Amino acid sequence: DDVKQDKRLSRAECQKKIEQLTREMKEAAKILEFEHAAFLRDRIDKLRKQLEHKTNLLHRKEETLWQTTKL
Fold first, then answer.
1. Rounded to an integer, what distance in angstroms lies between the CA atom of residue 71 and that of residue 65?
2. Is 33 in contact with 41 (CB distance < 8 Å)?
3. ∠ Cα 11 15 17 (to 5°)
4. In angstroms, rounded to a whole number, what is the distance separating the alpha carbons of residues 38 and 56?
5. Residue 22 burial (CB < 10 Å; 0-12/13-18/19+)?
6. Which residues contact 64 (CB under 8 A, 6 or more apart)?
7. What CA–CA distance (Å, rounded) separates 48 from 68?
8. pTM to 2 decimals?
9. By the 8 A CB rule, do 16 and 51 touch?
10. H helix runs in 1-71, sequence order
11. Is the pLDDT of residue 47 over 70?
12. Per-residue pLDDT averaged across 42-71, rounded?
C-alpha cells in the first residue's frame, strides 16, 4: 500500500515524492484524467501533512536537546 510506504519515507524522500506526484498530477489534469489528478492531489496533501509533522518533531527534539545542554 502506497500510503503505508509513504509513512516510512525520510523528510528528503517525502519532499521528492511530493515533487514527483505533483508532476504526475499536472500531467493527469492535462490529459483530462481529473479523477486521477484529484487522487494524486489528496495523496500530496497527506504527504505534506506528514512532512510537516516530521519537521515539527525534529524541531521539538532539537529544542529539547538545546534545553538539556543549557542546564
1. 10
2. no
3. 115
4. 27
5. middle
6. none
7. 30
8. 0.73
9. no
10. 2-7, 11-30, 34-70
11. yes
12. 81
